[in-house]
Each structure stands twice: as structure tokens, then as C-alpha cells.
Amino acid sequence: MRNDWSSLLRPRTLRFKLMIASIGCILIPACITILIYNYLTRDTVKEQAVSNANESLKLVDGYVTNTMKFMLYIANYIQIDAEINAILKKNAAGTPYEGEDADYQQFTDVSKITSKIGNITVVGEKCFVTILLTNGMYYTNYPAYEYNPKLIFKEPWFGELEGLNGFQSYWVGTTPTSFLSERLVRNDYQISVARTLRQGSLEIYGYVIVTVLENQLNPILKNLSPDQETLLLDASDRVLSHRDSRKIGTYFPYVKQALEAGGKDIIAIDAEDYLLTTRQLGVTNWKLVSFSPYKKAIFKVDSIFKKMFIFQLGSFIVFLLLLLYLLRAFTKPLVRLGRVAATVRRGNLEVRSNIRGNDEIGLLGISIDQMLDRIKDMIAEITLTQARKRKAELAMLQAQINPHFLFNVLNSIRMKVMGRGDRDSAEMISSLSKLLRMTISQDKDLIPFHEEVEIIIHYVQLMDMRQKEKVHLEIDVAADVLMQKVPRFFLQPVIENALLHGLNQCAGTITLRAYANERQFVIVVEDTGQGMETHKLAALRQRMLTGAIGAGEEQEAGQHLSSIGLANVCERMRMTFGDAFEMKVDSEIGQGTTVAMYVPKEAEGRSDV
């Protein structure tokens, strides 16, 4: 155990270097992170606390603003409704109702106004709507015993309405509740907005006052954190709404103190820091204020940061110890492989590492052991390989000698037949000799097109000698395609089909044409034979598409020289020249058959296989 640790801590060992590098890569960033963490935690905690307070105020702002917008919506509706304004102007001017149905008309007008007021207030926040004309007439959505609207003329804020024009509004603020039923259930305060009704933009003929209860804003203020105090203040920093109704109407001095301190979010009150954030309402000059002790505001966030720091420190220590253990375990096989390599270097090939596993070190151990096993077999294998190589060379030489012997014998026979005057037999033997030479002696799959044409000429000559009637072979090959590289014997199955199936032992003509255009090398084989039936032609085209050998071609393979067939010729050409190669077969009964092959010119650059 002591030796393992001493070798582990030797400065020149791989283990020591890995440990130092790993600890350095972990420890240095960790220390830097801790220092930056301690430096930035305070600002982060403060920012998070301010952010939380702002989010709370944003939530309250949405609720309060929606309530105020609903109040303004009611006032806007009354101001712009033409029917309501016509009735109000008529009543404000003192125009009497005349005729037999005067009382009914007056009742109808009052009903129209009260029903419209009721309809717009039936949805949304509970509102008390008052339309008060300058002559004392009024329309409300509440009964007269709740509150006498004429008392509005005596309110201390009523004089402020004279300066309003158009859609300007006066927010009354928080005042004691005027409605009897609400006072009975201890709804002590209300908030109102007032507007004037004018003839054009001049004379005032009435007023619109929309009122909500202060406790309609209270629930959203009460539902926030108990440590967070949220207030609604007017422009003079008087409390308009608070979860403690006793503070309504009192002065809140700390907003001014924060402004005097440069707009800071944290202010000191009686040697204790408080977090104060404000948010201006959009519909009036009132504002929302969040006020809470700073320690309580940051308690949760600061606690999370401290727990995370302790967790990170403990994780680092555990990870460091685990890393040292794993480094020792992972590098132990490497030390053993080093010892095996040193033993082999001294000439001992019997040693083995015996390290196994699915990781890189295990595979390396297996490879080294297999390499050592193979080294002993290499000497015998080299000797055996050399012997087999000499035997293969001898067999290759024999394979070269045998064809030459066959060709020489055929030539001798041809000369004797020629000497006896049988020229047809001599030509037959000559064609057979040349055909065999081209078949056996070539070691390449691709040959020039002119050599393939020569093979076809000799093949037709041989077939003419075995048929009852001779077939005439016409060749029309352009000079620029003679050196085009093509697979060996790709035309022979096409010519054979023309001979055996098209002409069927009868006299006829087979035409071979070849030419080149801009993109393709075109080869056309035509015969004047009996042609093919429609269903057989369709079956052949299907086999050419799939590359399969049909039953007819299998039978043909057992009876004739070619065992390839048109479908396999097509497949072989596609394997050589790619999918750009095309092969088309057209045939009619009594009109012969045409086979056209279109070879892409891109294939000219391919090397011989």
C-alpha cells in the first residue's frame, strides 16, 4: 500500500501529473468562483429583493389600474352616449314634458338612463354611479335612501370640478363611506372619480361621479407577504389604501426621505434598514409603495445563497477525494502495462498483462496480449506464407502455359485443315481460337469497344457455321467511340438473343450501330426477326427494372452458350456505369426487335476494374 502511494506521488509519474492537473483545474476555478461569489452575493441578494418587491407592486398595479380603468370606462360611456346626453341636456335646461303621456315620457327617460347605468355596472367591480345635474336632478344605480346625491354639492372637493374640461377627471381620493348599507357592514372608506358634463365645451349642466369602496382594493394588499407593507399614496404621500384601515389618511414620510437620499431603495429608519420601492400608476398621479425590513426581505434569498455555498463546498471536497481515488484506480492498469512493456523489451515474450475490460485500457491490454500471442506464430506463418506464395506463382505460370498450349494446338489443327483445302473449317477454328484467346487471356473487366466488336464478329461467324441459314451482321460504328471502355462480353448475350430467339435459325440481318452525342455513348442492336409478343416484352422490361432472372432466361441458361440474359446485362451495366445508364427494348410481332443502350459519358473516366 505504501509503495502504491509513493509511486503515486512521484513527481515524474503519469499519476502525479494527472492529479496535479486535475486538482489545479478544479481548485483554481473553485477559489475564483468563491471569491467572486462572496463579492457579488450582496448585490445579487439586493437586486433579487428589489426585483421581488417590484414584481409584487406590478401585480398590485395591475389590479388597482384595472379597477380605475373600469371607473373611467363608466364615466366615458355616460359622456359619449348620445341618448343619455340628450335626455340630460333636456332635463338640465328645465324643458317640461308635455302632452297626455308626459308622465310616461318622463318615466321612460329615467328608466333608459338607470337601465344603461345598471347594465354597464353589472359586470366588473361593484360601483356606485351618480349623475347629478346643476338643477338638482339626479340619476343613480342605487336607491335614494342609501345616499342623497344632492349632498355632493357640499363636498369640500366639489369646487375642484369647475376647472375640468372634456374627459379630464378628478380623483377624489379616500373619503368616509357615504352609503348607508356599506357603513353598516363596516366598509368605512370609498374612492371616487368625478367628471363634468358640459354644453359643448362651455357651460356645465351636470356631473358624473363613479365610486368604489376602498376595501375592494384591500384584498390584493392583504394577500402579499406579511413582512411586506404595501400602500396606495396620493400625490401628497397621504395613505389612500392600506391593509390597516387606521393608517388611511395619515402621512407617509419615507418616500420623501428616499428621494432626498438620491432615490435609494434602502433607507435607514431607527438604525434599521428598510427596503422601499415605488411604482407610479398610469391613470392618475397616485403611486404604490412597497415597504419592508431589509433583513426580512432578503431572508429567503440570502438563506438560499448560503445553503448553495455550503452545498458547493461540501460537494467540492467529496468530489476531490473521489477524483484522487478514481485516478489511482484508473491508472493502475497503465502501470501494469508499463511493466509488461519493460519485460518484453528485455526479450521475454512469455509475459502477459491479463488486463481485461470494455474500456480503452481493457481493449489495449487484450490487444497487447494478442499481439504477444501472435508474435510467436509470425515466424512460422512467414515461412508458410513464402512457401504458399511460391506455389501460387507456379500455379499462375502453369495457368499461363496451358492457354498458350491450347492456342498453339488449335493453330496447328487450323494449318493442317487449311493444307487439305477446307477453308470453312479453318476459318471456324481460327474464329474459335481468337474468341478463346480474348476470353481467357484478358485480365481486365473493361476493354475498348473495338475489341468487343471483334468478339461479336468472331461469335457470329461461329454461330453461322452451326445454323442452317447464315445471318448477315452489319456494323456501323463511329470512329470516336472505338476506344470507349465497356465491360467484356456485354454485347454477346444481346447478339445471342437476336440469333436464337429473334431470327430462330433463319436468315436475317443483325445491325450493330454505335455513336456518341453530347452526353451519351449510344449502342443499338437491331434484328429483322420475328419480334416479341406484348406480354413477353412487358415481362422482359419488368425483369430489366428489377434485375431478376426470369424462368425463361434460366431455361435459356441451360441450353445455350450465354447464361447472362438481357436483364443481367442491364444490371451489370448499371453496376459499371451507375443509375444514369439506360437500356430500352422495343419489339413487334413480325417487325423484329431493337435493343438500345445509353451509356453516360461520365463513365469514360472510370479506371479498369
TrEMBL record:
It is a multi-pass membrane protein. Its main location: membrane. The chain crosses the membrane at residues 20-40, 309-327. InterPro entries: Bact_2-comp_sensor_kinase, dCache_1, HAMP_dom, HATPase_C_sf, HATPase_dom, Sig_transdc_His_kin_internal. GO terms for molecular function: kinase activity. Keywords: ATP-binding, Cell membrane, Kinase, Membrane, Nucleotide-binding, Phosphoprotein, Transferase, Transmembrane, Transmembrane helix, Two-component regulatory system. It comes from the Bacteria. Residues 328-380 form the HAMP domain. Pfam families: dCache_1 (PF02743), HAMP (PF00672), HATPase_c (PF02518), His_kinase (PF06580). It is found in: Cell membrane. This is Histidine kinase. It comes from Paenibacillus filicis.
